[in-house]
Amino acid sequence: MFIDYSDNELAILQRLKQGDEAAFTQLYRKYSLPLYVNFLRFVKDETLSEELVQEIFVRIWTKRESLSIKENFSAYLYRSAQNLVYDFYRKLQRNKTLYQRFKELATSNYTHIEEVLSLKESETILYKALNKLSPQQKRVYQLCKIQGQTYKQAGSELGISLHTVKEHLEKANLTVRAYVASNLDIFLSLVVITCLTKK
Questions:
Q1: Domains and CATH numbers, the chain
Q2: What angle do CA 169, 195, 119 make, to 5 degrees?
Q3: Would you give the distance in Å from CA 34 to the centre of its chain?
Q4: Closest by alpha carbon to 139, among 171, 114, 178?
Q5: Do residues 181 and 107 touch, judged by C-beta distance below 8 A?
Q6: Which of 8, 38, 61, 96 has the most Cβ atoms closer than 10 angstroms to its Cβ?
């Protein structure tokens, strides 16, 4: 079925409030994938991400007659997604099995950790993690991960080979990852901050 995304979204929402399934499908097809990708960034689980998308749209359909959307639909979905992710992390802290599973996923996916560690709010945890490194590992990490220098630039500045830079960075990454794993409560709090502030 051809979906015309040029339709006025306000008109689509009005049709949705009247129970128009085609309007609901149109919104779902337009927004479900971006929502899924966003959820996946934070919960690191494909099935759970799909469930969260479904939950948002089930709520929308169930409450369609009383929907009060004062901003655009995209902003409304973003706010709904924030609330769902926040609920997920609150549930996570109460459920030991889920908590352990997420811990394994989070610590095995270093990109996710780095994203959180790049936030201003995480300066304390990053500072403490870096203090676990040797002076040379710390300097390499700062140059490559924080200042964004290439291995070649870092090696030139420190007077060491490209191979040595890579070696130091690999060891530093392992140490930082281990520190985050041993301080997961702080890490999860920062993930929640990420979810609630990312736009």
A1: 9-94 (1.10.1740.10), 110-197 (1.10.10.10)
A2: 40
A3: 13
A4: 171
A5: yes
A6: 38
**Contact between 179 and 132 (Cβ < 8 Å):** yes
Cα first-last separation, the chain = 31
Query: Which tokens in the block code for residue 49?
Result: 């991400």
Note whether 112 and 41 are within 8 A (CB).
yes
pLDDT in tens, 79-133: 888 888 777 777 766 666 666 666 665 555 545 555 555 544 456 677 788 888 9
Using pLDDT thresholds of 50, 70 and 90, give the confidence band for residue 171. very high
Q: Are 31 and 77 in contact (CB under 8 A)?
A: yes
The predicted-structure confidence for 28-53, as pLDDT tens digits, reads as follows 998 999 888 888 877 777 888 898 89
The first and second tokens of residue 110, run together, are 């270093």
CA distance 67 to 46: 28
d(CA 32, CA 191): 22
Please, are residues 110 and 173 in contact by the beta-carbon 8 Å criterion?
A: yes
- Is 27 within 8 Å of 53 (Cβ atoms)? no
